[in-house]
């Protein structure tokens, strides 16, 4: 039997516990309101509190409602597994290791970004930051406090910007008229391939110089727009014929440079002939006779980029002196 004095003490403790619960509820409600007022503009989902001894997580309901859950759908006592079990498999171990490191005192703050599965199966991106705020008398972690943000929209915008930036970087390497590499980048590519040959990462490299015959004369007869038409059509022919692992660029005027990694001179000459014939058979907007001249050269040991290029350019000059509309290799 419990005597009157003991019962009085028990009742007093119950009243004090009820008062503490009421106060905690008011403090939590106040914290939720403060979270919304202070941080709503940057996706704040509020503070969270993790009692390690009780294995209980107290959090702003926005953290769960952001995932599509209604308050009444949440269990009465939510432990940290409710959220960690929803972390994307690719992010899970990183998040857990960061928490382990913080609990072990290896890092001063637990700070991670991770994808978390919503109720409908889609993923949101959360940024979480917290730290141990209370310890036992022996120094063991007892209580953690943190704050979480929904950065899904920010991450989506970031990925779009990264994609656009990558596309702009690629565009900056291209010639605007033809869509081929511009002069500096095709020469850079040629230099890179030659370096790979010298390091025995490739067997060889050949190059083709393509020059539209009589371009200045065509411009004077039919106007510069027709000249642009010839250049664009020559570029289109080159794109159609060369393989995806070959490189082509606009050098100057009506001259193009094609880089053929691991291609011998004999095969390069066949490719050049195919370009010459295909280009001359194209239909154009003016009744012009359109032809091209092509010089083919294969890299020789210890040659510089300039020396290789000049060999092909000299072949072009010989063709021009001997009637044009031909392919020549040394």
List the helices and strands and how they pair.
Blueprint: H1 4-39, E1 44-51, E2 56-59, H2 62-65, H3 81-84, H4 89-103, E3 110-117, E4 123-135, E5 141-150, H5 152-172, H6 183-198, E6 205-212, H7 215-222, H8 224-241, E7 247-252, E8 255-261, H9 265-280, E9 292-298, H10 305-321, E10 327-329
Parallel strand pairs: 9-10
Antiparallel strand pairs: 1-2, 1-5, 3-4, 4-5, 6-8, 6-9, 7-8
Helix pairs in contact: 7-8, 8-9
- Number of beta strands: 10
**What is the correct CATH architecture of the largest domain?**
2-Layer Sandwich
Tally of DSSP helical segments: 10
CATH class of the largest domain: Alpha Beta
**Largest sheet geometry:** 5 strands, antiparallel
Give the SSE string.
HEEHHHEEEHHEHHEEHEHE
Counted up, domains total 2
Given the helix and strand composition, which structural class is it?
alpha+beta
Query: What strand order characterises the main sheet?
Result: 2-1-5-4-3
Rg for CA atoms: 36 Å
Mean pLDDT: 85
Shape: elongated
Describe, in plain words, how this protein is organized in 3D.
The mean pLDDT is 85. α7 crosses α8 (224-241) and α8 crosses α9. It is built from ten helices and ten strands. The protein folds into two domains: 39-157, PAS domain (Beta-Lactamase); 173-329, Reverse transcriptase/Diguanylate cyclase domain (Alpha-Beta Plaits), CATH 3.30.70. The protein is of the alpha+beta class and 330 residues long. The strands form two sheets. Strands 2-1-5-4-3 form a five-stranded antiparallel sheet, with helices on both faces. Strands 7-8-6-9-10 form a five-stranded mixed sheet, with helices on both faces. β1 (44-51) and β2 (56-59) form a beta hairpin. It starts with a helix and ends with a strand.
